[in-house]
Amino acid sequence: MNICMEQVIELVHSVKPFFMDRAMSHDVTVKGLADFVTRADTSVQSRLFGELSKQYPGIQLMGEEDHMQAVDFSKPMWILDPIDGTTNLIYSYCHSAVSLGYYENKKIGAAVIYNPFTEETFHAVRGQGAFLNGRRIRVTQKAALKDSLIAIGTSPYDKEMTEDNFRVFKEIFRRSLDIRRSGSAALDLAYLACGRVDGFLERNLKPWDFSAGGLLVEEAGGQVTDYSLMPLDYSKNQDILASNGKIHDELQKEVRFVQNGLDSGGDLNRSTY
Predict the structure, then answer these.
(1) In the structure, what pLDDT confidence band is assigned to residue 270 with cuts at 50, 70 and 90?
(2) What is the pLDDT of residues 100-150, one digit of tens each?
(3) Disulfide engineering: 242 pairs with which of 68, 124, 176, 224, CB 3.0-4.6 Å?
(4) Burial tier of 19 (Cβ tally within 10 Å: 0-12, 13-18, 19+)
């Protein structure tokens, strides 16, 4: 299907008032451990899905706030996170975004990520490059992990992963320039695409967390896989490893080094990993 990106971007921009409405962002329901939904989340999703249904009838809709709805992954769909970074929004930590991807033929064909607080709109169409506010963007050319800034996600909904996650983060911190944790996987991937970080990793992300950002990274010249270097599967949760492409293998080796239970305090047998 032909997607009119100008039309989609205009629609995404129309939800900015929901982000700025403090009453909405403070009207909170607890879904689970460290997992919240606000009236802003549900209002954004209702607005976008309502309009997308009119503009692109017959296309399936999958969103964070109705993720139990059955979808057929052999057919096209919109994949939406209405507000990625809900906890940030609740705390007036102005780093949240709409993340919208168009899925077809087992790939994301178009993507928009919009941060209304900074008025930054990232978009991409497969095969046509990635853009920030209309300007072409590309990943960095850093060729070594030691020179690279790595964004991390802590999987806050999965506290049982804490020990393993932070063992990986510790090793990457030791061997990279530095690490960053922002609270929005979508924006982490967008920042990777425009060169603000060199890599990103987080476990157990849901399709709406990584679908749009993954295409941005690829169209900006980067690489996105799971932790085992396999292509992404949008029908299930994924452990996401993304980079500028040049440090991808080195970053994955550090993850594998820790996951295999080796002594992260030394270099013994490190050459085999």
Answers:
(1) low
(2) 999 999 999 999 999 999 999 999 999 999 999 999 999 999 999 999 999
(3) 224
(4) buried
The token pair at 42 is 């549900």
pTM of the model: 0.92
Bridge partners of 179? 150
Domains of the chain listed by start with CATH number: 5-137 (3.30.540.10), 145-272 (3.40.190.80)
Tokens of 185: 């996987």
- Phi/psi at 248 (5° precision): -60, -50
Q: Which ranges in the chain belong to alpha helices (H)?
A: 5-13, 16-20, 22-25, 39-55, 86-90, 162-175, 185-193, 207-219, 248-259
Strands (E), 85-234: 97-104, 107-115, 120-125, 130-132, 135-137, 149-152, 178-180, 199-205, 223-226
DSSP-derived letter for residue 139 is -
Neighbouring residues of 74: CB distance < 8 A, sequence distance ≥ 6: none
What does the alpha-carbon distance between residue 188 and residue 186 come to, in Å, rounded to a whole number? 5
The pLDDT tens digits for 138-152 are 999 999 999 999 999
Q: How many residues does the chain have?
A: 273
Cβ(41)–Cβ(5) below 8 Å: no
